[in-house]
Design goal:
- With 417 residues, the chain is α/β, with parallel strands linked by helices.
- It has two domains: 2-131, Toll/interleukin-1 receptor homology (TIR) domain (Rossmann fold); 148-399, Hypothetical protein af1432.
- The chain is built from 26 helices and seven strands.
- It has a five-stranded parallel sheet with strand order 2-1-3-4-5, sandwiched between helices.
- α6 (101-104) links the parallel β4 (89-93) and β5.
- The longest helix is centred in the C-terminal third of the chain and has 24 residues, at 300-323.
- The chain is globular.
Amino acid sequence: MRVFLSHSSKDKPQVRKLAQQLKLYGIDIWIDEERIYVGDSISKKIQQGLRESDYLCIWLTNQAMQSGWVEKEWLPKIKQEIDESRTVVLPLLAENCDLPDFLIDKRYADFRSSFNDGLDDLLQVFDIKKTKTIKKVTHYVYDLLSDLDGVIIPLPHLTNINIISSLKKIPRSGKKIRLDTYEPKVEIRSIYDHLISVAHSADCLLPELGLQLSDTEAMDLSRCIVYHDICEIFLGDIPRYTPLTDPKRSKASILAEERLKRFSPQERDSITNAFIKLFLEEREQLSMTRYESIIHKNNELSKLFIFLDKIDPLIGVWRYLFYYRGKLDDGKKFISRLRDFFIYERPIKVAQEYSNDPRVICMIERLRDRHDALNYYQGQGLQGMLFGFHSSIITQLIEGHTMQFAPTKKKNRKEQL
């Protein structure tokens, strides 16, 4: 189910909060800042988003009533609602305002006095019971990322680095390096997507493994997920396994890694994290310090995090196959281009180090099977594949998370020539 959030740009903070909350319940959200990149046609992207969405939620404020864009977004969905004789347009009343005629007779979700009450009203439409379906680790990860939102690291005479914006802009280099020249063009998932994806995997797999994390343990796991890759805003995202020649690695890298390459990878991470910590508030500094203490203990929680982190790129390949199904010809060239992800031994090794549960090993072995991956791309359901875990769990693992892509760099005329 996909929900389009129509709103005035001046109401962005509250709508962004709503988007994050809905994602916790497995709802695919269309919001402009995550779907429209520099150089894109705004009107075309919006029309595409509206066509592909099941519901249009309108965040109703005085600013929205005065917005021309918001009104344009209503019109196609109003027609769909009339043609299909079903509810499509959902009003979300955030403040008292003059409603357009077609909304006056509709019941609205009331966010005016309480955000949580309004959310409860909206979730009822989607037949979601709030207390039973929230994804615990994902919830904490979003909270931690929200705390970092707006944190700026100033580099004198160079630029200011916004941590969250950077995580959303930096592509996962393992995919980028292998797919940069691939045709047809595919979007590359961001580091930010990796963080949310690891949290999603935790919420899918932990109940099946019989692990019930306390709130403290879930928060600690979330700290590992968020802070493990935060140094990549300076170091880039070049996996150790990626086989690159020195010139290519240098080109894919950025200045900070070039300056730090005389240190070991562990030292680079430590130095970079210490620098970032200078610009964090006390609460975030404590969270980062807590992460560092966990990851160095080699205890069960750190092993769990490493397991989830290292299997994520492989899960990501299957997610690409689902997202681009039917758009990559027969899929053979795409899978061949990403063959390194299937033959890389690290996921199976960390799975063996983490757990002696045969279902875990079975799942990783099956995900590493290129023949199965090709069959999945070509339309075979997961029901016929023995993953160790029930096929519904693997379906949720792969298809229950919507990828967030890094913005595509637009070539200027000089680069094209």
